[in-house]
Amino acid sequence: MTQTIDMIHEDGLPGHESRLDPQPEWQPRYAGSGRLKDNVAIVTGADSGIGRAVAALFAREGADIAIVYLLEDDDAAETQRIVESEGRRAITIRADVGSRDMCSRIVDETISAFGRIDVLVNNAGEQHPDEEITDISEDQLRRTFQTNIFGMFFLVQAARPHLKRGAAIVNCTSVTMYKGSKELLDYSSTKGAITAFTRSLSENLIEHGIRVNAVAPGPIWTPLNPCGGASEEKLEHFGESTPMGRPGQPNEVAPSFLFLACEDASYMSGQVLHPNGGVIVNG
After folding, report:
1. Which of 226, 227, 228 lies closest to 239, judged by CA?
2. In sequence order, what are the residues at sequence separation of 6 or more whose Cβ sits closer than 8 angstroms to the Cβ of residue 6?
3. 3-class secondary structure for the chain?
4. How wide is the angle at C-alpha 120 spanned by C-alphas 26 and 9, nearest 5°?
5. For the CA atoms of 150, 151, 152, 155, what is the dihedral angle to 10 degrees?
6. What angle do CA 198, 200, 204 make, to 5 degrees?
7. What is the dihedral of CA 108, 114, 119, 120, to 10 degrees?
8. Strand duo 64-69 + 40-44: pairing
9. What is the pLDDT of residues 83-122, one digit of tens each?
10. Residue 23 and residue 150: Cα distance in Å, rounded?
11. Distance CA 201, CA 112 (A)
């Protein structure tokens, strides 16, 4: 089941992975070992970028995947094909996570298809570069917060009755939360909120045996930046400021999500991992 989303972004976001050159690297780098055997995971923003790489790796490790995406039907279908090629089940759910009603529908469709939810990956996000704070429109400010942090609240609220002891939530924050970003004022502010949300939600759910952690990627080659999420000047030198001197690939980030989702991280909650090319952020 799909639902039309009447939304036009001023900059064409979120963008199609199928149109990027070079193509992002989503492929898992190693054989699976059953670390998520027969689990069910909801992954938002799973049509492309980090979300696709997470869905692919989770499937290789034995999970069935609910692929949540905003607009890109072709990219979502490709992620579904990837998951199914690993021998796992997948459904695609076209939805705007900034809508409470749609988040309820995401959970309902996942339960209808798979009967359970073991892992929730809150990865979907948007960003819009602006040189001056006065350039950020009220609509953009509200929309960025609606997607990036309100959506996490809505989806956790909808999923909470189905999350049992041993479940895991993994949120996507960003290196910009720690370093700041002069042209992503609203985006980096939402990422600060996500980190605080992660730590607070961990405190709230830990007594129920539900772990909550986050991943804070650095500059990663996904559709988000080249399709309007970064200025042309930033794109020209994208990732060069990291100690490694290059942007990361989605399949270099996905293992952090896997670690936090599976029993390997059974003694970790309220924490943040930093696949960011060597940037020291002390947080």
Report:
1. 226
2. none
3. CCCCCCCCCCCCCCCCHHHCCCCCCCCCCCCCCCCCCCCEEEEECCCCHHHHHHHHHHHHCCCEEEEEECCCHHHHHHHHHHHHHCCCCEEEEECCCCCHHHHHHHHHHHHHHHCCCCEEEECCCCCCCCCCHHHCCHHHHHHHHHHHHHHHHHHHHHHHHHCCCCCEEEEECCCHHHHCCCCCHHHHHHHHHHHHHHHHHHHHHHHHCCEEEEECCCCECCCCHHHHHCCHHHHHCCCCCCCCCCCECHHHHHHHHHHHHCHHHCCCCCCEECCCCCCCCCC
4. 65
5. 130
6. 110
7. -30
8. parallel
9. 999 999 999 999 999 999 999 999 999 999 999 999 999 9
10. 30
11. 26
Neighbours of 146 (CB within 10 A): 17
Position 92, amino acid: T
pTM above 0.85? yes
pLDDT (tens digit per residue) in 152-168: 999 999 999 999 999 99
Q: Quick check: 158 and 41 in contact, CB under 8 A?
A: no
Q: Which of 30, 178, 187, 267 is catalytic?
A: 187
Residue 114 has which token pair? 């798979």
For the question of residue 187 being annotated catalytic, the response is: yes
Structure tokens at 159: 């999923």
Whether 153 and 204 have beta carbons less than 8 Å apart is answered as no
What is the greatest pairwise CA distance in the chain?
A: 51
